[in-house]
Protein backbone atom coordinates (compact mmCIF):
# COMPACT_ATOMS: atom_id res chain seq x y z
CA UNK A 1 0.00 0.00 0.00
CA UNK A 2 1.26 3.46 -0.87
CA UNK A 3 1.87 5.33 2.36
CA UNK A 4 1.98 8.91 3.52
CA UNK A 5 5.78 8.93 3.04
CA UNK A 6 5.30 7.74 -0.54
CA UNK A 7 2.76 10.52 -1.13
CA UNK A 8 5.15 13.21 0.16
CA UNK A 9 8.01 11.92 -2.00
CA UNK A 10 5.88 11.60 -5.14
CA UNK A 11 4.30 15.03 -4.75
CA UNK A 12 7.73 16.62 -4.40
CA UNK A 13 8.92 14.88 -7.57
CA UNK A 14 5.74 15.87 -9.39
CA UNK A 15 6.17 19.53 -8.45
CA UNK A 16 9.71 19.45 -9.89
CA UNK A 17 8.25 18.77 -13.35
CA UNK A 18 7.81 22.25 -14.76
CA UNK A 19 4.42 22.27 -16.48
CA UNK A 20 3.97 26.04 -16.61
CA UNK A 21 1.16 26.86 -19.00
CA UNK A 22 1.83 28.47 -21.37
CA UNK A 23 3.61 26.64 -22.92
CA UNK A 24 2.52 23.57 -20.90
CA UNK A 25 4.80 20.68 -21.89
CA UNK A 26 2.69 18.38 -19.71
CA UNK A 27 3.85 15.23 -21.48
CA UNK A 28 6.61 14.75 -18.90
CA UNK A 29 3.99 14.81 -16.14
CA UNK A 30 1.83 12.27 -17.99
CA UNK A 31 4.82 9.95 -18.40
CA UNK A 32 5.63 10.35 -14.69
CA UNK A 33 2.09 9.29 -13.74
CA UNK A 34 2.12 6.47 -16.29
CA UNK A 35 5.28 5.03 -14.70
CA UNK A 36 3.60 4.91 -11.27
CA UNK A 37 0.53 3.19 -12.70
CA UNK A 38 2.58 0.66 -14.68
CA UNK A 39 4.66 -0.26 -11.63
CA UNK A 40 1.36 -1.09 -9.92
CA UNK A 41 0.26 -3.29 -12.82
CA UNK A 42 -2.34 -0.84 -14.08
CA UNK A 43 -2.80 -0.06 -17.75
CA UNK A 44 -2.61 3.59 -18.76
CA UNK A 45 -3.00 5.43 -22.03
CA UNK A 46 -1.41 8.73 -22.98
CA UNK A 47 -3.32 10.89 -25.46
CA UNK A 48 -1.39 13.80 -26.96
CA UNK A 49 -3.40 16.68 -28.39
CA UNK A 50 -0.26 18.41 -29.69
CA UNK A 51 3.51 17.97 -29.34
CA UNK A 52 4.38 17.84 -25.62
CA UNK A 53 0.70 18.40 -24.66
CA UNK A 54 -0.44 15.08 -23.20
CA UNK A 55 -3.29 13.65 -21.13
CA UNK A 56 -3.36 10.32 -19.29
CA UNK A 57 -6.20 7.94 -18.47
CA UNK A 58 -6.36 4.68 -16.51
CA UNK A 59 -9.27 2.49 -15.47
CA UNK A 60 -10.34 -0.05 -12.86
CA UNK A 61 -13.09 -2.16 -14.40
CA UNK A 62 -16.38 -2.36 -12.53
CA UNK A 63 -19.04 -5.03 -12.17
CA UNK A 64 -21.50 -3.15 -14.34
CA UNK A 65 -21.15 -1.57 -17.76
CA UNK A 66 -21.59 2.10 -18.57
CA UNK A 67 -21.61 5.36 -16.65
CA UNK A 68 -18.09 5.41 -15.15
CA UNK A 69 -16.96 7.50 -12.19
CA UNK A 70 -14.09 9.87 -12.96
CA UNK A 71 -11.32 11.11 -10.68
CA UNK A 72 -10.24 14.20 -12.61
CA UNK A 73 -7.18 16.39 -12.22
CA UNK A 74 -4.95 18.62 -14.30
CA UNK A 75 -1.17 18.63 -14.54
CA UNK A 76 -0.44 22.15 -15.78
CA UNK A 77 0.26 25.11 -13.53
CA UNK A 78 0.27 28.89 -13.80
CA UNK A 79 3.58 30.76 -14.23
CA UNK A 80 5.82 31.56 -11.25
CA UNK A 81 8.55 34.21 -11.11
CA UNK A 82 11.50 32.70 -9.26
CA UNK A 83 12.75 36.08 -8.01
CA UNK A 84 9.50 36.59 -6.06
CA UNK A 85 9.72 33.29 -4.16
CA UNK A 86 11.74 32.47 -1.06
CA UNK A 87 12.46 29.00 -2.54
CA UNK A 88 12.63 27.72 -6.12
CA UNK A 89 9.03 27.40 -7.36
CA UNK A 90 9.82 24.03 -8.96
CA UNK A 91 12.13 22.71 -6.27
CA UNK A 92 9.60 20.77 -4.21
CA UNK A 93 11.40 21.96 -1.07
CA UNK A 94 10.20 21.01 2.41
CA UNK A 95 10.45 23.86 4.90
CA UNK A 96 8.79 24.36 8.29
CA UNK A 97 6.39 21.47 7.72
CA UNK A 98 5.30 22.55 4.21
CA UNK A 99 6.01 21.41 0.67
CA UNK A 100 6.63 24.53 -1.41
CA UNK A 101 6.11 24.73 -5.15
CA UNK A 102 3.94 25.96 -7.96
CA UNK A 103 0.97 23.61 -8.16
CA UNK A 104 1.22 22.43 -4.55
CA UNK A 105 -2.44 23.42 -4.03
CA UNK A 106 -3.54 23.84 -7.65
CA UNK A 107 -3.51 20.93 -8.08
CA UNK A 108 -0.57 18.52 -8.09
CA UNK A 109 -1.04 17.34 -4.51
CA UNK A 110 -4.67 16.43 -5.21
CA UNK A 111 -3.74 14.64 -8.44
CA UNK A 112 -1.28 12.44 -6.53
CA UNK A 113 -3.62 11.78 -3.60
CA UNK A 114 -6.37 10.75 -6.04
CA UNK A 115 -3.88 8.61 -7.97
CA UNK A 116 -2.70 6.82 -4.82
CA UNK A 117 -6.29 6.24 -3.67
CA UNK A 118 -7.00 4.78 -7.12
CA UNK A 119 -3.88 2.56 -6.88
CA UNK A 120 -4.84 1.48 -3.35
CA UNK A 121 -8.25 0.34 -4.59
CA UNK A 122 -6.64 -1.78 -7.30
CA UNK A 123 -4.01 -3.28 -4.97
CA UNK A 124 -6.69 -4.42 -2.55
CA UNK A 125 -8.46 -6.18 -5.39
CA UNK A 126 -11.66 -4.16 -4.99
CA UNK A 127 -14.02 -4.51 -7.94
CA UNK A 128 -16.14 -1.35 -7.98
CA UNK A 129 -19.80 -1.27 -9.00
CA UNK A 130 -18.89 0.95 -11.96
CA UNK A 131 -15.62 1.62 -13.74
CA UNK A 132 -13.42 4.05 -11.84
CA UNK A 133 -11.38 6.21 -14.20
CA UNK A 134 -8.29 8.19 -13.23
CA UNK A 135 -7.92 11.10 -15.67
CA UNK A 136 -5.22 13.78 -15.61
CA UNK A 137 -5.43 16.42 -18.31
CA UNK A 138 -3.25 19.19 -19.64
CA UNK A 139 -4.13 22.78 -20.50
CA UNK A 140 -6.71 23.48 -17.77
CA UNK A 141 -5.11 26.77 -16.80
CA UNK A 142 -5.71 28.33 -20.23
CA UNK A 143 -9.09 26.86 -21.10
CA UNK A 144 -8.69 23.12 -21.69
CA UNK A 145 -8.75 22.92 -25.51
CA UNK A 146 -5.80 20.50 -25.52
CA UNK A 147 -6.97 18.79 -22.34
CA UNK A 148 -10.54 18.14 -21.25
CA UNK A 149 -12.10 19.34 -24.49
CA UNK A 150 -9.75 17.11 -26.51
CA UNK A 151 -10.36 14.06 -24.29
CA UNK A 152 -14.14 14.38 -24.49
CA UNK A 153 -13.85 14.28 -28.28
CA UNK A 154 -11.29 11.46 -28.24
CA UNK A 155 -13.13 9.27 -25.69
CA UNK A 156 -16.89 9.95 -26.01
CA UNK A 157 -17.62 7.50 -23.17
CA UNK A 158 -16.44 10.19 -20.74
CA UNK A 159 -19.56 12.19 -21.55
CA UNK A 160 -21.63 9.33 -20.12
CA UNK A 161 -20.02 9.55 -16.68
CA UNK A 162 -22.27 9.13 -13.67
CA UNK A 163 -20.13 11.38 -11.45
CA UNK A 164 -16.89 13.41 -11.59
CA UNK A 165 -14.69 14.49 -8.67
CA UNK A 166 -12.03 17.17 -9.09
CA UNK A 167 -10.79 20.48 -7.65
CA UNK A 168 -12.75 23.48 -6.43
CA UNK A 169 -13.42 22.98 -2.71
CA UNK A 170 -11.64 21.97 0.48
CA UNK A 171 -11.89 22.23 4.25
CA UNK A 172 -11.42 25.81 5.45
CA UNK A 173 -10.27 26.86 8.92
CA UNK A 174 -11.00 30.43 9.95
CA UNK A 175 -10.95 31.74 13.51
CA UNK A 176 -10.89 28.17 14.82
CA UNK A 177 -14.03 27.21 12.88
CA UNK A 178 -13.72 24.43 10.28
CA UNK A 179 -16.20 23.76 7.52
CA UNK A 180 -16.13 21.86 4.25
CA UNK A 181 -16.72 23.56 0.90
CA UNK A 182 -17.98 21.08 -1.69
CA UNK A 183 -18.12 22.94 -4.99
CA UNK A 184 -21.28 22.23 -6.97
CA UNK A 185 -20.96 25.14 -9.39
CA UNK A 186 -18.52 27.85 -10.38
CA UNK A 187 -18.47 31.42 -11.53
CA UNK A 188 -18.37 32.01 -15.26
CA UNK A 189 -15.13 32.97 -16.91
CA UNK A 190 -15.61 36.24 -18.81
CA UNK A 191 -12.24 37.75 -19.66
CA UNK A 192 -11.74 40.70 -22.00
CA UNK A 193 -9.28 43.23 -23.39
CA UNK A 194 -9.85 46.97 -23.63
CA UNK A 195 -7.97 48.48 -26.57
CA UNK A 196 -7.37 52.10 -27.50
CA UNK A 197 -5.78 53.88 -30.43
CA UNK A 198 -4.52 57.42 -30.45
CA UNK A 199 -2.00 59.68 -32.10
CA UNK A 200 1.66 59.12 -31.48
CA UNK A 201 4.00 62.00 -30.81
CA UNK A 202 6.65 63.55 -28.62
CA UNK A 203 6.03 63.37 -24.88
CA UNK A 204 6.85 67.05 -24.51
CA UNK A 205 3.87 68.08 -26.65
CA UNK A 206 0.60 66.51 -25.37
CA UNK A 207 -2.21 66.73 -27.91
CA UNK A 208 -5.28 65.18 -26.24
CA UNK A 209 -5.31 61.92 -28.24
CA UNK A 210 -3.14 59.72 -26.01
CA UNK A 211 -4.01 55.99 -26.15
CA UNK A 212 -2.75 55.45 -22.59
CA UNK A 213 -5.01 58.17 -21.22
CA UNK A 214 -8.01 56.62 -22.96
CA UNK A 215 -7.20 53.25 -21.40
CA UNK A 216 -6.73 54.72 -17.94
CA UNK A 217 -10.03 56.59 -18.07
CA UNK A 218 -11.98 53.59 -19.39
CA UNK A 219 -10.36 51.25 -16.88
CA UNK A 220 -11.16 53.60 -14.01
CA UNK A 221 -14.84 53.67 -14.97
CA UNK A 222 -14.96 49.87 -15.25
CA UNK A 223 -13.19 49.29 -11.93
CA UNK A 224 -15.19 51.94 -10.10
CA UNK A 225 -18.48 50.23 -10.84
CA UNK A 226 -19.84 48.33 -7.83
CA UNK A 227 -21.49 45.17 -9.06
CA UNK A 228 -24.46 44.34 -6.82
CA UNK A 229 -24.28 41.67 -4.12
CA UNK A 230 -26.78 38.92 -4.93
CA UNK A 231 -28.04 35.86 -3.09
CA UNK A 232 -28.42 32.48 -4.81
CA UNK A 233 -29.71 29.21 -3.35
CA UNK A 234 -26.16 27.86 -3.13
CA UNK A 235 -24.61 30.93 -1.50
CA UNK A 236 -27.61 31.17 0.85
CA UNK A 237 -27.03 27.57 1.96
CA UNK A 238 -23.27 28.08 2.23
CA UNK A 239 -23.28 31.32 4.21
CA UNK A 240 -26.25 30.19 6.28
CA UNK A 241 -24.20 27.16 7.34
CA UNK A 242 -21.26 29.36 8.35
CA UNK A 243 -22.98 32.41 9.81
CA UNK A 244 -26.11 30.87 11.31
CA UNK A 245 -26.24 31.97 14.95
CA UNK A 246 -23.56 34.64 14.49
CA UNK A 247 -24.34 38.15 15.75
CA UNK A 248 -23.23 41.63 14.69
CA UNK A 249 -24.13 44.46 17.04
CA UNK A 250 -26.55 42.20 18.89
CA UNK A 251 -28.38 41.20 15.68
CA UNK A 252 -28.42 37.53 14.75
CA UNK A 253 -27.68 36.57 11.13
CA UNK A 254 -31.13 36.76 9.50
CA UNK A 255 -30.46 34.70 6.38
CA UNK A 256 -28.57 35.92 3.33
CA UNK A 257 -31.34 37.79 1.51
CA UNK A 258 -32.19 39.91 4.55
CA UNK A 259 -28.53 40.31 5.55
CA UNK A 260 -27.75 41.87 2.17
CA UNK A 261 -30.10 44.72 3.10
CA UNK A 262 -28.25 45.49 6.36
CA UNK A 263 -25.11 47.71 6.16
CA UNK A 264 -23.26 45.84 8.92
CA UNK A 265 -23.68 42.48 7.24
CA UNK A 266 -22.87 43.93 3.82
CA UNK A 267 -19.62 45.30 5.27
CA UNK A 268 -18.76 41.81 6.54
CA UNK A 269 -19.37 40.29 3.11
CA UNK A 270 -17.38 42.94 1.26
CA UNK A 271 -14.42 42.80 3.65
CA UNK A 272 -14.01 39.01 3.24
CA UNK A 273 -12.38 38.14 -0.10
CA UNK A 274 -14.18 34.81 -0.44
CA UNK A 275 -17.63 36.06 0.60
CA UNK A 276 -17.31 39.08 -1.67
CA UNK A 277 -16.27 36.93 -4.65
CA UNK A 278 -19.13 34.44 -4.35
CA UNK A 279 -21.79 37.16 -4.00
CA UNK A 280 -21.04 39.46 -6.95
CA UNK A 281 -19.46 39.70 -10.36
CA UNK A 282 -15.78 40.53 -9.97
CA UNK A 283 -13.62 42.41 -12.48
CA UNK A 284 -9.84 42.51 -11.98
CA UNK A 285 -7.29 44.42 -14.07
CA UNK A 286 -4.38 42.02 -14.65
CA UNK A 287 -2.30 43.27 -17.63
CA UNK A 288 -1.45 46.79 -18.84
CA UNK A 289 0.40 47.41 -22.10
CA UNK A 290 1.18 50.83 -23.50
CA UNK A 291 4.24 52.80 -24.50
CA UNK A 292 7.84 51.92 -25.26
CA UNK A 293 9.85 55.03 -24.44
CA UNK A 294 9.48 57.68 -21.77
CA UNK A 295 9.37 60.58 -24.22
CA UNK A 296 7.05 59.01 -26.83
CA UNK A 297 3.25 59.20 -26.73
CA UNK A 298 1.97 55.74 -27.71
CA UNK A 299 -0.49 55.29 -30.57
CA UNK A 300 -1.90 52.04 -29.13
CA UNK A 301 -2.40 50.56 -25.65
CA UNK A 302 -4.48 47.92 -23.93
CA UNK A 303 -5.71 46.61 -20.58
CA UNK A 304 -6.67 43.00 -19.91
CA UNK A 305 -9.32 42.11 -17.34
CA UNK A 306 -10.16 38.84 -15.60
CA UNK A 307 -13.88 38.87 -14.88
CA UNK A 308 -15.82 36.16 -13.05
CA UNK A 309 -19.60 36.24 -13.22
CA UNK A 310 -22.24 34.86 -10.87
CA UNK A 311 -23.80 31.64 -12.21
CA UNK A 312 -27.10 33.41 -13.00
CA UNK A 313 -25.40 36.24 -14.92
CA UNK A 314 -25.17 36.11 -18.73
CA UNK A 315 -22.12 37.11 -20.74
CA UNK A 316 -24.30 39.26 -23.01
CA UNK A 317 -25.78 41.33 -20.15
CA UNK A 318 -22.37 41.70 -18.54
CA UNK A 319 -20.68 42.96 -21.69
CA UNK A 320 -23.46 45.42 -22.43
CA UNK A 321 -22.68 47.03 -19.07
CA UNK A 322 -18.89 46.89 -19.58
CA UNK A 323 -19.15 48.60 -22.98
CA UNK A 324 -21.39 51.27 -21.48
CA UNK A 325 -18.89 51.88 -18.69
CA UNK A 326 -15.84 51.87 -20.97
CA UNK A 327 -17.16 54.53 -23.33
CA UNK A 328 -16.74 55.19 -27.03
CA UNK A 329 -13.00 55.94 -27.08
CA UNK A 330 -12.03 52.27 -26.60
CA UNK A 331 -12.92 48.85 -28.05
CA UNK A 332 -13.84 45.80 -25.95
CA UNK A 333 -12.70 42.37 -27.19
CA UNK A 334 -13.86 39.23 -25.44
CA UNK A 335 -11.41 36.40 -24.75
CA UNK A 336 -12.97 33.01 -25.45
CA UNK A 337 -16.27 33.74 -27.16
CA UNK A 338 -17.35 30.08 -26.98
CA UNK A 339 -17.19 29.74 -23.19
CA UNK A 340 -20.21 27.76 -22.00
CA UNK A 341 -22.67 28.67 -19.28
CA UNK A 342 -23.21 25.40 -17.37
CA UNK A 343 -25.74 25.07 -14.60
CA UNK A 344 -25.01 23.80 -11.08
CA UNK A 345 -24.81 20.18 -10.01
CA UNK A 346 -27.53 19.17 -7.60
CA UNK A 347 -26.44 18.55 -4.02
CA UNK A 348 -29.43 16.59 -2.70
CA UNK A 349 -27.78 13.47 -4.07
CA UNK A 350 -26.29 10.21 -2.86
CA UNK A 351 -22.90 11.56 -3.99
CA UNK A 352 -23.11 14.64 -1.77
CA UNK A 353 -24.32 12.59 1.17
CA UNK A 354 -21.52 10.07 0.63
CA UNK A 355 -18.86 12.77 0.51
CA UNK A 356 -20.43 14.33 3.62
CA UNK A 357 -20.23 10.99 5.45
CA UNK A 358 -16.58 10.58 4.49
CA UNK A 359 -15.75 14.07 5.74
CA UNK A 360 -17.57 13.77 9.06
CA UNK A 361 -16.05 10.34 9.72
CA UNK A 362 -12.61 11.94 9.41
CA UNK A 363 -13.25 15.40 10.91
CA UNK A 364 -16.24 14.99 13.21
CA UNK A 365 -19.55 16.81 13.03
CA UNK A 366 -18.57 19.85 10.98
CA UNK A 367 -20.72 21.72 8.43
CA UNK A 368 -20.43 20.23 4.93
CA UNK A 369 -21.78 22.90 2.60
CA UNK A 370 -22.38 23.44 -1.13
CA UNK A 371 -20.01 26.01 -2.54
CA UNK A 372 -19.49 28.25 -5.59
CA UNK A 373 -15.92 28.04 -6.88
CA UNK A 374 -14.69 31.52 -7.78
CA UNK A 375 -12.31 30.27 -10.49
CA UNK A 376 -12.94 28.19 -13.60
CA UNK A 377 -12.27 24.43 -13.61
CA UNK A 378 -12.58 21.53 -16.05
CA UNK A 379 -15.72 20.46 -14.19
CA UNK A 380 -17.65 22.97 -16.30
CA UNK A 381 -17.32 20.61 -19.27
CA UNK A 382 -19.28 17.97 -17.37
CA UNK A 383 -21.81 20.28 -15.77
CA UNK A 384 -22.49 21.69 -19.23
CA UNK A 385 -23.78 18.26 -20.34
CA UNK A 386 -25.64 17.48 -17.12
CA UNK A 387 -23.10 15.15 -15.46
CA UNK A 388 -23.00 15.57 -11.64
CA UNK A 389 -19.60 17.06 -10.82
CA UNK A 390 -18.19 18.16 -7.46
CA UNK A 391 -14.98 19.93 -6.59
CA UNK A 392 -13.42 18.82 -3.32
CA UNK A 393 -9.99 17.94 -1.92
CA UNK A 394 -10.13 16.77 1.72
CA UNK A 395 -7.40 19.00 3.15
CA UNK A 396 -7.77 21.73 5.76
CA UNK A 397 -6.42 25.10 4.64
CA UNK A 398 -6.30 28.38 6.49
CA UNK A 399 -7.43 31.46 4.60
CA UNK A 400 -3.77 32.49 4.27
CA UNK A 401 -2.81 29.14 2.73
CA UNK A 402 -5.79 29.23 0.38
CA UNK A 403 -4.85 32.72 -0.85
CA UNK A 404 -1.37 31.52 -1.87
CA UNK A 405 -2.88 29.56 -4.76
CA UNK A 406 -1.52 31.16 -7.96
CA UNK A 407 0.61 33.40 -5.72
CA UNK A 408 4.18 33.42 -4.48
CA UNK A 409 5.34 30.67 -2.11
CA UNK A 410 2.38 28.40 -2.88
CA UNK A 411 2.61 25.55 -0.41
CA UNK A 412 0.80 22.65 1.22
CA UNK A 413 1.52 21.27 4.67
CA UNK A 414 2.79 17.77 5.32
CA UNK A 415 -0.22 17.28 7.56
CA UNK A 416 -2.44 18.22 4.62
CA UNK A 417 -0.83 15.43 2.60
CA UNK A 418 -1.64 12.90 5.31
CA UNK A 419 -5.19 14.25 5.57
CA UNK A 420 -5.65 14.45 1.80
CA UNK A 421 -4.47 10.90 1.17
CA UNK A 422 -6.68 9.46 3.91
CA UNK A 423 -9.65 11.50 2.75
CA UNK A 424 -9.23 10.59 -0.92
CA UNK A 425 -9.04 6.90 -0.04
CA UNK A 426 -12.24 7.22 1.97
CA UNK A 427 -14.09 8.99 -0.86
CA UNK A 428 -12.82 6.56 -3.51
CA UNK A 429 -13.92 3.63 -1.37
CA UNK A 430 -17.38 5.18 -1.16
CA UNK A 431 -17.48 5.73 -4.93
CA UNK A 432 -16.46 2.14 -5.54
CA UNK A 433 -19.17 0.76 -3.23
CA UNK A 434 -22.47 -0.59 -4.38
CA UNK A 435 -24.30 2.38 -2.86
CA UNK A 436 -23.72 4.67 -5.86
CA UNK A 437 -26.52 4.70 -8.43
CATH architecture of the largest domain: 3-Layer(aba) Sandwich
Shape: globular
Helical stretch tally: 14
Assign the CATH class of the largest domain. Alpha Beta
CATH homolog superfamily of the largest domain: Zn peptidases
Structural class: alpha+beta
Uncertain parts: none
Number of strands: 22
For the record, the count of structural domains works out to 2
Strand portion, in percent? 15-25%
Overall pLDDT level: 95
Radius of gyration: 23 Å
Note down, in words, how this protein is organized.
Strand 8 and strand 9 form a beta hairpin. This protein has a six-stranded mixed sheet with strand order 1-2-6-3-7-20. Strands 10, 11, 15, 17 and 18 form a five-stranded antiparallel sheet that branches. The protein has two domains: 4-186 and 345-432, Zn peptidases (Aminopeptidase); 188-334, Alpha-Beta Plaits (2-Layer Sandwich). The chain contains 14 helices and 22 strands. With 437 residues, the chain is an alpha+beta fold. It starts with a helix and ends in a 5-residue tail after the last helix. Helix 8 (263-271) crosses helix 9 (273-279).
Amino acid sequence: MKTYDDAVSIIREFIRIDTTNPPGKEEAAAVFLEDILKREGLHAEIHAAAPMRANIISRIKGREKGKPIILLGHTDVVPAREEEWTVHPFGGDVKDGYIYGRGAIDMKAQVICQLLAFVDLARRGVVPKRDIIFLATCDEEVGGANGMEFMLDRIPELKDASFVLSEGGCLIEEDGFIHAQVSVTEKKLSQFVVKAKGTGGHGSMPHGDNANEKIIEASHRILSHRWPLKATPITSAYLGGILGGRRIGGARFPGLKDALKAPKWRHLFESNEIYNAILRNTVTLTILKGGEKVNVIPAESSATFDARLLPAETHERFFRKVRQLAGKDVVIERIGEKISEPGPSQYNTVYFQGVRNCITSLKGDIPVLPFVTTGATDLRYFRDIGVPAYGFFPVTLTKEEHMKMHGKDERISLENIREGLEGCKSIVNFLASGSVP
